[in-house]
Fold this sequence. Notes:
By secondary structure, the chain is an alpha/beta fold.
Amino acid sequence: MVKYRIEKNSVQETLLIPLFGRKLCTELYPSVFRDEKAVELINRIDYDFSEFERKSRSTFYRFGALEVAMREGDLMIETKDYLKAHPKAALVNLGCGLDQTMENCDNGLCRIYNIDLPAVISVRNELLPETDRIKNIGADLNDTAWFDEIPAENGVCLIAAGVFYYFKKEQVRKLFAAMSERFPGGRLCFDTANKRAVKLMLKTWVKTAGVTSIEDYFSVESVEKDIAPWMKNAKITERGYMLGYNDLREPSVPRLFRLLGKLGDGFMKMRIVRMDFINNIYDKK
């Protein structure tokens, strides 16, 4: 089998971090999270993973990997829930990277759309090429021309994992409003955290990107105060990111991780937010 080569210190290398995290959790905590597609994909990539393997012996690296895995698991739960009522829906993965969340939700009837910047999609096309029901779209999410690629007649479920932290609040507000108008009856699920957590998550990126202030970037202390006022035509619910869908009381998961998960959901306000776009503001209950 010819493997796809990814060089050290390349932009492509950043795509491997969450992928390796999902693979690691599949091996360490299979009763909590399984992503066999991530394991298969790692085996198809020509890259020296020795540094990743070394780091994976660290307790806090493993917790970080579990955070990535739990986020994917949470979004899968919400997507599969939407598919129960809309089995032929369009499933849209925003900022997909090498993520296969929607493929892991495939019921054989839905259509899947993976969207990221063109440079990322070029890598994805090599490793995860399109099929008759899966399409990879190279686009800037803030340029809503990509809406035209998504058929909405059978419902639309959109997810974004670790994406909106890199957007300014005004960009997110405009994108949410545009999606709710274009995809009534659809669902958007994404993760949020408060400002202190976002500063930690984006610490390296802020320096690299030359960002002088993170104040304008998307963070959420309170969904009710920070998001709900934007979205009069959506029903919004939220759950804890780490413990909202799984209490992590599994023998394979260290007790420390449950404590850290509680800290993340509480002090860091880590949440999975679900927006159900409604057809008429008066339908909201």
